[in-house]
Write a structure and sequence with these properties.
With 305 residues, the chain is an alpha/beta fold. The protein contains 14 helices and 8 strands.
Length: 305
């Protein structure tokens, strides 16, 4: 199957590699055009069907009708701009796939707007990170059935066995991916807290060995725990090369907001999100207020900054 692909970041480039190695024909474009040419040269040398396009217009021109263009760029303004540019060149019957971490509300709006132009829209939640090339990408796809069905050969090439699901109508794919990432926040926070308790213990515990142990028969075994083993091996038990600053890409916030909107209690995910916020404060103002109040009412010691 032929596909245009825009956005060759850490995940996007590996998605292209996985598709061409399974026999699909890809036209690739990246804002830094050299990256598209480097990837094309690399895969063509191995006998795979791939071309680089210097512009979005050139990408569309290289695709046979009806065309499909997959966008893999940051959610928000970058995705909106990319859709707008594609719309200048696509025609009725063509399809746009957004594989970034877009908000599902945006998907519903885009589907309606693009439908006025005769353009189909599919939202694809993608999980797998930098390991997706070897292991496959878990795909949670939303969109009208007539838009999704023709793309299933691509989805099945990207995913491992049983790793693709048409989750529902427009927005459903990114909705499921949003909740997926919210759950991920909670899982990661629980592991972080458990290892911190053991790190503070009086026992001389080998945290890497414990992480490895728990991956064999334990009810808490997981791929995240396997990655913890690798992290301890790379950075040592004290993680001295890592700063405890944790970003969030939006999906955790949206999951919490959706829980509020639906009157669903989600304390674990909510606290995991708030803990990420705390990790980005060099010196918490709230903690200063707490210290000051304890000093005022009880004469408790405060430390000077």
């Amino acid at each position: 199957m032929q596909l245009g692909f825009i956005g060759l970041g850490r995940m996007g480039a590996n998605m292209v590699r996985r598709m061409v190695r399974d026999g699909h024909e890809i036209v690739a474009h990246n804002r830094t055009v050299e990256k598209a040419h480097e990837l094309a040269d690399e895969e063509r040398a191995a006998g795979h069907a791939i071309e680089a396009a210097d512009t979005v217009e050139a990408l569309v021109a290289k695709l046979a009708k009806p065309r499909t263009a997959w966008i893999m760029v940051p959610a928000g303004d970058a995705t909106e701009a990319q859709i707008k540019e594609l719309l200048e060149h696509l025609e009725p019957g063509d399809t746009i796939v957004d594989g970034g971490n877009s908000n599902f509300h945006d998907d519903v709006r885009r589907h309606e707007e693009l439908a006025k132009h005769g353009i189909r829209y599919v939202d694809a939640g993608v999980s797998g990170g930098i390991w997706g090339l070897a292991n496959g990408f878990c795909l949670m796809v939303g969109g009208d059935r007539e838009a999704v069905a023709p793309l299933e050969p691509i989805f099945r090439s990207l995913a491992p066995v049983d790793g693709y699901l048409h989750a529902g109508p427009p927005g459903a794919g990114h909705y499921v991916k949003m909740v997926h990432n919210g759950i991920e926040y909670g899982l990661m926070q629980a592991y972080a807290e458990g290892f911190e308790i053991m790190h503070a213990s009086e026992y001389p515990l080998d945290l890497g060995a414990i992480a490895e142990l728990w991956n064999h028969g334990s009810v808490v075994r997981s791929w995240l725990l396997e990655l913890a083993v690798d992290a301890f091996k790379t950075n040592g038990p004290d993680l001295t090369n890592i700063k405890g600053w944790v970003a969030d890409s939006g999906e955790g916030r949206w999951t919490v907001q959706e829980a509020i909107d639906r009157d669903v209690p989600a304390p674990v995910i909510t606290l995991a999100l708030l803990t990420r916020f705390r990790s980005r404060q060099e010196d918490s103002y709230g903690a200063k207020v707490l210290a000051a109040l304890r000093n005022e009412f009880g004469g408790h010691e405060v430390k000077s900054s």
